[in-house]
Amino acid sequence: MHDRFLAAIFVSRWQWWAGGISLGLTVPAMYYFFNTPLGISTGYGNLVRILCPRVKSSWLNSDTFRDVWNWRLFFMAGVLAGGFLSSFMSGRTGVLVSMESFTGFIRMPFPVACLHMFSGGLLLGLGSRISGGCTSGHSIHGISNLHPSSMFITAVFVLFGVISSAFLRLFYGGPLP
User: Fold this and answer.
1) How far apart are CA 4 and CA 51, in angstroms?
2) pTM for this entry
C-alpha cells in the first residue's frame, strides 16, 4: 500500500484537476504562512546572486535579493530533487531531454538538445525579469488576485506561445492542427 501511494504521488501523472486543486490551495497557503506570492523567478535571481556575487546589476542588488538563502532557493532545489526522486522511483534514472511531441517531431543530438534547453532556460529567466515575474507567478498568483498587469502579460504569454508553436511547425515542416 505504501509503495502504491508513493508511486501515485511521485511517478504517475496526476489528473489535471488534482494538479489544479494543489496549485489553487498553494497560493492562499503561501500568503497565510509566508505573506508572499508563489513564484520561482526570484529564486533564479538568488541563484545568480550566489554564483556571481560581484554582479553590479541594479535588480540583483535590490532588497529582494539581499537574503539569497531564502525559501525560494530551497523551493528551486526541491523542484529539482522532486524530479530526480520521481525519475528514480520510476526506474528511469539519468538525464532526459525529451519534451513530448516537440522532441518526437524535431530530432536533435543529445549535446544540441542540452544546449537548446539551457538556452531556453536563460531566455526564460530574461523574460521573467523583463515581465516582472514568471508565467506561473503571473498566471497563478496574479490572475487569482485580479492584477491587470498579470492578466495582460498572461495573454501575451499565450499569444506568443501559439505563434511560436505555429512557427516551429511550419519551419520544421509539420502540419498545423
Assistant:
1) 40
2) 0.65
d(CA 83, CA 22): 17
Cα distance from N-terminal residue to C-terminal residue, the chain? 42
At 31 the three-state DSSP class reads: helix
The pLDDT of 124-147, averaged and rounded, is 77
Q: Could you tell me if 140 and 23 are in contact, meaning their C-beta atoms sit under 8 angstroms apart?
A: yes
Chain mean position to CA 8 = 22
151: helix, strand or coil: helix
- 56-106 per-position pLDDT tens digit: 888 778 887 788 888 888 888 888 888 888 777 777 766 666 666 666 666
Cell 532557493, located at residue? 73
**Amino acid present at 176:** L
d(CA 146, CA 66): 29
R_g of the chain, CA atoms, integer Å = 18
Cell of 75: 523551493
Instruction: Tell me the C-alpha distance between 62 and 59, whole Å.
Output: 5
At 85, is the secondary structure helix, strand, or coil?
helix
